Amino acid sequence: MRPPHPDSVVPPENGPPESLVKPERKVRKRHRYQTCALVFLALLLGLSSTCVSFSTKITPFDAISKPGEEVELKAKVEGFGFSYFRNDVEEENVAFKLEGAALGVTATDDEGVATLVVTAPEKPGLYSVRIEGPGDAANDLNLLVAGNDAALAVTDIDMTLADVSPAVYVFRSNESIQPIAGAVELIKFLSAEKNIYIVYISHRDDALRNESLEWLKMKGFPDGVLFFSENFDHWMQESAYDFKKPTIEKIKERFPRVLLGLGDKVTDANAYLDNDLPTYIVPSEDRRNFPEEAVLLDDWTKFDRGIVDDLLGN
Question: Which residues contact 48 (CB under 8 A, 6 or more apart)?
């Protein structure tokens, strides 16, 4: 077992329900006057109308549960705003539906978050929960229902799957961002051919969840659950390691067959190795800085697919 990384953090004892795998999140609280000021400034500066939106936005937060257990479903509802800074929509009803059947209706809180506790389906699989908010606003939450024997793989997004850095992503269109060589084929192989559930874990702000999912679908990556850093303020204060290490740790506590981790940075390697995951890296940093236990590759076409059968125990 690898000794703990010096930046390791201990998750709080009184966390969310155990069916939730992501550490308790601190949602973005946007006051109306802050949002109005940002919109006014954007218009004053003559920024593109695409930067200012008056439509309602729903951001789901994906979840993992075991069959038949209670699971907490959450989604954030936001109104007008500038770019990713939007006004929280409070006290509005949000409906949750699974395969057309109503799961329940709940109102958003003062942070614009709607929370509904439901019983997960008995049949394992990746489910799409429809979320319907004010007006025509709607989106889909990914709910993974998995047993102890389910196989999972964890992957980063920026510079691992997508040939773009987090700092540059917000200034690029999804159409202009290309996948890293071999990334689509490898993730498809793990999902479709080896029946491994894909867990996308990114240090991107969770306000980028919808756009990130759109890019993954556009480029042909398989469906999975997505976990993102909690908010812009928190993103500025924590490292990718501080976010990813406890997130993976909570997943492994309940789903022990997390087979491998894919990434590009030293923080990815440390987060994976400190959770005892076989670690494969296409480096975007100096190779000399990576721990020797990490397997470094030029790109994902160089990944030895035969390793997967060994990891699965076949």
Answer: none
Number of independent structural domains in the chain: 2
Residue 180's closest CA among 68, 100, 40, 281?
281
Contact between 89 and 108 (Cβ < 8 Å) = yes
> For residue range 56-108, what is the model confidence (pLDDT) as tens digits?
999 999 999 999 999 999 999 998 776 567 788 999 999 999 999 999 999 99
For residue 225, the enclosing domain spans 152-312
Distance between CA atoms of residues 194 and 189, nearest Å: 7
Query: Residues 159, 294: one domain?
Result: yes
The verdict on 79 and 125 lying in the same domain is: yes
Sole residue written with tokens 């999804």: 174
Cα angle vertex 112, ends 215, 61, to 5°? 40
- In tens, the pLDDT along 221-246 reads 999 999 998 755 544 556 889 999 99
Residue-wise pLDDT tens digits, 154-185: 999 999 999 999 888 888 899 999 999 999 99
